[in-house]
Amino acid sequence: MNNKILYIGIILLIISLQACNQSSSESLSKKDAVLSVIHERKSVRNFVKDRPVSKEDIEMLLRAGMAAPSGKNVQAWEFVVIDDRSTLDKMAAELPTAKMLAEAPMAIVVCGDTVRQSYWYLDCAAATENILLAVEASGLGAVWTAAYPYRDRMNTVIKYTELPPQILPLVVIPVGHPMGKHSPKDKYDEKKVHMNKW
Question: Is 30 exposed, middle or buried (0-12, 13-18, 19+ CB in 10 A)?
Fold first, then answer.
């Protein structure tokens, strides 16, 4: 009888250890996957012009953006998806840091509602980073091009997207299939890390 109980106990212990190992392994692979996407993210400025981004991928990017943290959960962000070739070309001609729009098959403009939240740009920046990480994870390419706080750039974006007065553009994100090789940069600098005090 005692041997039987001991045998069952050993089996239960083995099953329990295997479950812990599997859970730990899954947790480790999830961490590795997330960190890999973060460290592999890069700014892509050259795109395959005639290769569109699928509707499924666009929705996936927008869902990622809207999964970002938001102060008091106000979610004051708004998104304008532009895939009209004429509009992309006109914006490329006028925006000094977004010339690559002339090659990109689409762009996402991340905007904020200034009436709903005074610090809309913080939430919109988090949403933008989520989109850029989702772009990297899906094998697409993108680059952050600032509209805010540059009045001339903002006016260009507002003109072509017909934003209402309370909605301001933070960034224009050209998105597409990367052309050529793009490499991430290692930006870690231990001199910028301060423990407890400056």
Answer: exposed
Residue 14 domain boundaries: 1-40
Task: Count the domains in the chain.
Answer: 2
One-letter amino acid identity for 25? Answer: S
Spell out a b/e string for 33-51, using b for 16 or more CB atoms within 10 Å of the CB, else e: eeeebeeebbebbbbeeee
Residue 17 lies in a domain: yes
Dist. CA 44–CA 106, nearest whole Å: 13
Could you state, in chain order, the average pLDDT of each consecutive group of 10 residues for the chain (198 residues)?
56 56 66 92 94 98 98 97 98 98 98 97 98 98 98 98 98 97 92 95
* CATH number of the domain bearing residue 76: 3.40.109.10
pTM: 0.85
197 part of a folded domain = no
